[in-house]
Amino acid sequence: MSTARSPVRISEGAKRMLRELATHEGTTMQAVLDRAIEAYRRQRFLEAANSAFLALREDGAAWEAERRERREWDAAAFPREKRR
Prior knowledge:
This protein is mostly helical. The chain has helices at about 10-25, 30-60, 60-75.
């Protein structure tokens, strides 16, 4: 983890909350902020993925192509036993 200083202005309320969280967790404010930023980044990623999936489902032809491809992958990954 880099220790470079990057001054960022935050409200007094946010700073107070950041300090309380750090104290409660027994860690630094920087560590709490790093985790919060990573959690926010992941949330945004999942929201974008969810929106893209919804758009795919709303496109009937594209959704059917997706389902067809999944069936093909499933058939390749889980072949049925040959019957005698």
